[in-house]
User: Which sequence fits this backbone?
C-alpha cells in the first residue's frame, strides 16, 4: 500500500504492512499555523534548514551554513517537527564528533570530512585541484557526505523511537575504493558515536508519540513488553497501560493493547482483566472493522468460577454494546466478584400477622406461666393442707399470734413460721448444717421443709424465698418484707 | 407500647440475651414466630396432665431455636407443676448400651431434676423427702398418731411398711428394691445416719457400679443399670404423679450424638429404645410422661444412619404427607422448627427495642427503617448465609442499642457496618459427613 507521502528512500525493515497515515487535522493545523505569530514574510532562502532552525537550535554561523546545504528527503517520520529537531541535534553532535575526534591522515585537511571529500573527488572525477569543476564538485561531495550523515542520524533517532522502518543510507558513490575509504574514515566512526550517544536523543514527547503510534501501528508492542516485564502490581500495570493507550489514541490497533493487557493480567487481577476486556470491546465497537475477539477458554475459566459470574459479565457486555456506556460497564464489572447483596423483603401484612400471632402466644403463655391459684390449691390439698391440718393440732395456742406476723394467705404452719423467724434472728443467713440440726430436732426433713416454705411463698413472690448459697440458706430481705403482715 | 411485661422480666430478657442465653423469666415476650409450635406443645402438655403420655421430636438445623424451645417447654412445664429434667446426649451417654453409657444418661437426668421451687435442678432429694412426709402424714392419720410422735423410733416399722406398700402400689418393675432404698433413706434420717441417706440417694441416682457394693451398703439385690434405667424412670414418673405433680417431663437435647454412634448395631439398638419409649407413650403403657428429643434434620431423616434408617420409626415419624410449608400439622410427633423468616425477626427486633426502652426507661431513636437496615447489614455480612443465627442477630442488636443508649450521637450506619459475623457452630458439626461406619 502506498501513501501520499511515499518516499523511495525509505526501506521497510519492520515487516509491518504499511498503514495509511492520517495527520490529525488539529496537529497539522497547529504545526502549520502557530498561534499568535504574524504571517511570515517571504524569504527566498527560508526553506533552507539552517535558516529555518537558526533560532530553535541556537545555531552559529558555521552550523547554519552547513545545515543550509542539507535537505531532508521528506517522510512521515522526519516531517514531525520534534523528530526533525532531534535528528538535526544528533547530526550536529555527530559532525562535531567527526571534526574533533577523527583526525585526518593528511594534516593539510582541517577535518576528516574535508579529507574524504578530496579523496572522492580524486577517485571519482579526477578534476584538477584548482579548476572550477573541482571546487564545485568538492562542495557537492561534501554536501553528499553531510546528507548521508544526516540520514544515518535519522535512522539513529528512528531506532531510539522504536520505529523499525529505516531510511535508505546507501552512499551515492558506489566505487569500491570510495566506499572502503568512506566506511573506514566516516561510517565506522559514526556508527560507534551514534550507538554510544543514543541517550542524548530526547524521548519523544506526548504529541510526537501520538503521531508516531498513529503511523506505526505495532510500535506499542515494544513498550507493552517492557510493561509486562516490569509487572509488580495490578495498579501500576493499569496505570502504565492507560498511559500507553493514551499515546495510541489515534492508533487503529489501540483495542489490541487492551485485549493483550486483559489476557496478561488475568492471572494476577480478575477485575483488572475484565476492565481491560471491556475497554477492548469499547474500542473494537468504535473501530471500522470489529474483531470481537474472545478471551481464551482457559482465561475465561480462571476469570469466572461460576456460571452466574459468566452470565453477569455477559449481561454487562451486552449492555455496553447497547448503550456504549463504558463507565457504567466498568463500575458494574468492579462489583462482579463481590458477594451478592441480599435484599431483605419485609411484608407489612406478614409483619402484622406475625405480631397478631405473637400477641396470642404471649397471652396463651401468660396464662400458663401465671400462678394458678386453683391449681396450686388442688396440688396442695394432697400435701401441705393435710400436713398443716395435722400440725395445727400440735401447737394451736400460738397460731393466732404467729399468723398476725405473716400474711394469712400464705397459710404458713407454725414450724414454717418458726423457721422464718429463725432466719430473721440470724440476719437471714443460716448455715445448712445448723438448719439440719434444727430440723432434725423437730423430726423434719430439711429438703422438703425448705421446699414447702418456698412453695407456699412462690405465689406471692413469683420467685424462690429461701435460696441455697454455698453452705448457707439465705433469704432476700425484700422478699421477706413482702411476706409480713403490715397490719 | 408493650403490654404485660414486668420490670423484672424486662431486665432478665435484656441481660440474658446480651449474654447469648435464654432468659429465665419473661421468655413468652420474645417467643416470636412460634405460635403454632407453642399451641401444639400446650395442647400436648394438657394431654399429659390428663394422664396421657407424649413423645415429641423437635427437629431443626443449627440456630433454628431448638434449645430455645426446650427452654420454653421447661419453663412452662415447671409452672404447670411438672417435674422436669434436661439432659444432653453426648458421646459418653446414650439410651441403649451395655458398658454403662445409658446409666450415665440416667444419672444426668436424675441430677437435673427440677421443680418450680428448685428450677436449677438437684430436686430429687427434696421430692423424695416430700413424698416421705406425705406417707408419714398419711400413716399418722390412718393410725391416729400425732405427726411429732410418729417420727419416733418405735413407729419406724409402721412407716417402713407404709413406704413399701405405697411404692409397690405405684411401681411395676423393680419396685421392691426401689421401695427398700427409700425405706433406707428414711431410716438414715430417723437414726441420724447421714451415710445411709447418701447411699440411698446414690442408689436412686444410678451411681452404684456393682451389686455387691449396693448389697453391703443398703442390703438391696439390684442396682440401676443400663437395662433397667428406663423402668426406673417410669417408676419415678408414677412416684412424682402420686405426690400431686402433673407429670414428668424429660428433655433430651443434642440427639445428633445418637446419629454419630459409629457402630450400626449400637445405633439401631438406641433407635429401638426410642421406639419402645414412643410406643409406651402412645399406647398408653405409661401415664403423665412427656419426653422430648431435639436434634437436627440429619438425625431424623438420614436414611443411612438417622432415625429413618430404622424402618419402624420411619413409618411412625414420617411427615404427614398432606403437610406443606403453608399448611402445617403440629399434632405430629415430629415438630420441625423452620428458621425464623425476615418478617419474624423484624417483629422480634421491634419487640426487643420496646423491651429495651422499658428496661432502661428510655426511648431510643431507632426507626423501623433503621431496624431494617440493621437486618440487611447482618444478612449481608460475609458468612451470614452459613452461620448467622437469631442468637447472634439479637445479641448484636442489643449491643448496638446499648451503644446508642450511652452514646446518642453515634453514627448508626457505621455501627451496623462494623458488625462481624463469627462462626458459633460446634466444631464437630462440619465433620459429621466424615464419620466412618464401623
Assistant:
Amino acid at each position: 500500500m502506498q501513501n501520499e507521502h511515499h518516499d523511495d528512500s525509505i526501506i521497510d525493515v519492520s515487516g509491518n504492512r504499511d498503514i495509511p497515515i492520517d495527520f490529525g487535522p488539529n496537529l497539522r493545523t497547529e504545526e502549520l499555523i502557530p498561534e499568535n505569530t504574524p504571517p511570515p514574510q517571504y524569504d527566498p532562502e527560508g526553506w533552507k534548514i539552517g535558516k529555518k532552525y537558526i533560532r530553535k537550535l541556537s545555531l552559529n554561523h558555521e552550523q547554519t551554513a552547513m545545515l543550509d546545504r542539507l535537505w531532508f528527503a521528506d517522510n512521515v517520520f522526519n516531517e514531525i517537527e520534534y523528530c526533525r529537531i532531534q535528528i538535526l541535534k544528533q547530526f550536529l553532535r555527530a559532525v562535531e564528533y567527526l571534526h574533533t575526534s577523527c583526525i585526518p591522515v593528511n594534516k593539510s585537511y582541517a577535518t576528516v570530512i574535508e579529507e574524504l571529500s578530496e579523496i572522492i573527488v580524486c577517485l571519482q572525477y579526477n578534476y584538477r585541484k584548482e579548476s572550477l569543476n573541482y571546487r564545485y564538485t568538492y562542495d557537492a561531495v561534501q554536501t553528499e557526505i553531510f546528507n548521508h550523515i544526516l540520514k544515518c542520524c535519522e535512522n539513529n533517532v528512528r531506532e531510539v523511537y522504536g520505529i523499525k522502518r529505516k531510511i535508505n543510507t546507501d552512499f551515492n558513490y558506489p566505487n569500491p575504493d570510495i566506499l572502503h575509504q568512506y566506511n573506514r574514515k566516516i561510517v565506522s566512526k559514526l556508527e560507534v558515536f551514534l550507538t554510544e550517544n543514543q541517550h542524548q536523543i530526547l524521548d519523544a514527547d506526548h504529541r510526537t508519540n501520538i503521531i508516531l503510534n498513529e503511523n506505526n501501528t505495532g510500535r506499542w508492542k515494544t513498550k507493552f513488553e517492557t510493561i509486562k516485564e516490569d509487572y509488580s502490581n495490578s495498579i501500576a500495570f493499569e496505570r502504565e497501560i492507560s498511559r500507553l493507550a493514551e499515546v495510541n489514541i489515534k492508533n487503529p490497533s489501540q483495542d489490541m493493547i487492551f485485549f493483550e493487557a486483559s489476557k496478561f493480567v488475568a492471572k494476577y487481577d480478575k477485575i483488572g482483566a475484565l476492565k481491560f476486556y471491556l475497554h477492548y470491546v469499547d474500542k473494537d465497537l468504535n473501530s471500522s472493522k470489529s474483531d470481537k475477539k474472545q478471551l481464551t477458554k482457559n482465561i475465561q475459566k480462571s476469570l469466572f468460577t461460576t456460571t452466574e459470574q459468566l452470565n453477569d459479565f455477559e449481561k454487562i457486555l451486552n449492555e455496553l454494546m447497547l448503550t456504549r456506556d463504558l463507565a457504567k460497564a466498568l463500575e458494574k464489572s468492579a462489583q462482579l466478584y463481590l458477594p451478592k447483596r441480599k435484599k431483605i423483603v419485609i411484608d407489612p401484612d406478614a409483619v402484622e400477622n406475625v405480631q397478631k400471632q405473637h400477641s396470642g402466644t404471649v397471652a396463651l403463655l401468660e396464662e400458663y406461666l401465671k400462678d394458678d391459684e386453683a391449681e396450686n390449691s388442688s396440688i396442695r390439698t394432697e400435701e401441705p393442707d393435710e400436713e398443716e391440718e395435722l400440725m395445727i393440732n400440735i401447737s394451736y395456742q400460738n397460731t393466732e399470734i404467729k399468723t398476725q406476723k405473716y400474711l394469712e394467705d400464705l397459710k404458713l404452719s407454725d414450724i414454717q413460721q418458726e423457721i422464718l423467724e429463725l432466719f430473721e434472728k440470724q440476719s437471714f443467713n443460716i448455715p445448712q448444717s445448723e438448719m439440719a440440726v434444727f430440723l432434725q430436732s423437730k423430726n423434719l426433713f430439711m429438703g422438703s421443709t425448705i421446699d414447702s416454705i418456698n412453695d407456699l411463698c412462690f405465689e406471692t413472690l413469683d420467685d424462690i424465698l429461701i435460696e441455697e448459697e454455698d453452705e448457707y440458706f439465705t433469704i432476700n430481705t425484700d422478699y421477706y418484707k413482702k411476706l409480713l403482715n403490715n397490719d | 407500647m408493650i403490654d404485660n411485661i414486668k420490670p423484672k422480666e424486662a431486665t432478665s430478657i435484656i441481660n440474658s440475651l446480651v449474654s447469648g442465653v435464654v432468659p429465665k423469666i419473661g421468655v413468652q415476650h420474645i417467643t416470636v414466630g412460634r405460635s403454632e409450635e407453642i399451641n401444639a406443645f400446650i395442647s400436648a402438655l394438657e394431654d399429659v396432665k390428663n394422664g396421657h403420655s407424649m413423645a415429641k421430636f423437635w427437629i431443626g438445623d443449627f440456630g433454628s431455636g431448638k434449645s430455645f424451645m426446650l427452654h420454653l417447654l421447661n419453663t412452662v412445664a415447671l409452672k404447670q407443676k411438672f417435674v422436669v429434667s434436661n439432659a444432653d446426649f453426648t458421646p459418653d451417654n446414650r439410651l441403649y448400651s451395655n458398658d454403662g453409657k445409658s446409666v450415665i444418661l440416667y444419672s444426668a437426668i436424675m441430677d437435673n431434676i427440677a421443680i418450680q421451687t428448685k428450677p436449677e435442678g438437684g430436686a430429687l432429694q427434696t421430692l423424695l423427702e416430700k413424698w416421705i412426709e406425705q406417707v408419714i402424714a398419711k400413716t399418722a392419720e390412718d393410725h391416729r398418731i400425732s405427726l411429732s410422735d410418729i417420727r419416733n423410733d418405735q413407729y419406724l416399722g409402721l412407716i417402713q411398711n407404709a413406704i413399701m406398700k405405697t411404692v409397690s402400689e405405684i411401681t411395676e418393675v423393680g419396685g421392691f428394691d426401689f421401695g427398700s432404698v427409700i425405706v433406707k433413706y428414711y431410716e438414715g434420717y430417723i437414726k441420724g445416719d447421714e451415710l445411709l441417706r447418701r447411699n440411698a440417694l446414690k442408689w436412686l441416682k444410678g451411681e452404684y457400679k456393682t451389686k455387691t457394693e449396693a448389697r453391703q451398703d443398703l442390703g438391696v439385690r439390684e442396682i440401676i443399670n443400663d437395662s433397667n434405667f428406663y423402668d426406673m424412670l417410669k417408676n419415678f414418673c408414677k412416684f412424682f404423679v402420686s405426690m400431686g405433680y402433673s407429670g414428668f417431663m424429660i428433655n433430651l437435647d443434642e440427639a445428633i450424638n445418637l446419629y454419630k454412634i459409629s457402630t450400626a448395631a449400637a445405633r439401631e439398638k438406641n433407635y429401638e429404645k426410642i421406639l419402645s419409649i414412643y410406643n409406651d407413650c402412645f399406647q398408653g403403657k405409661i401415664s403423665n410422661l412427656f419426653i422430648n428429643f431435639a436434634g437436627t434434620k440429619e438425625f431424623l431423616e438420614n436414611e443411612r444412619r438417622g432415625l429413618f434408617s430404622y424402618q419402624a420409626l420411619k413409618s411412625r415419624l414420617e411427615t404427614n404427607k398432606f403437610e406443606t410449608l403453608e399448611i402445617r400439622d403440629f399434632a405430629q410427633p415430629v415438630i420441625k422448627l423452620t428458621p425464623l423468616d425476615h418478617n419474624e425477626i423484624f417483629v422480634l427486633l421491634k419487640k426487643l427495642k420496646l423491651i429495651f426502652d422499658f428496661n432502661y426507661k428510655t426511648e431510643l431513636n431507632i426507626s423501623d427503617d433503621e431496624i431494617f437496615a440493621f437486618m440487611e447489614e447482618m444478612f449481608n455480612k460475609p458468612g451470614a448465609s452459613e452461620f448467622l443465627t437469631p442468637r447472634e442477630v439479637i445479641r448484636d442488636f442489643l449491643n448496638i442499642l446499648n451503644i446508642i443508649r450511652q452514646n446518642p450521637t453515634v453514627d448508626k450506619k457505621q455501627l451496623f457496618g462494623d458488625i462481624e459475623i463469627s462462626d458459633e457452630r460446634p466444631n464437630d458439626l462440619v465433620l459429621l459427613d466424615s464419620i466412618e461406619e464401623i
User: Anything to note?
Assistant: Residues 408-483 of chain A form one domain. Chain A touches chain B through 52 residues (CB under 8 Å). The longest strand of chain A covers residues 466-469. The radius of gyration of chain A is 52 Å.
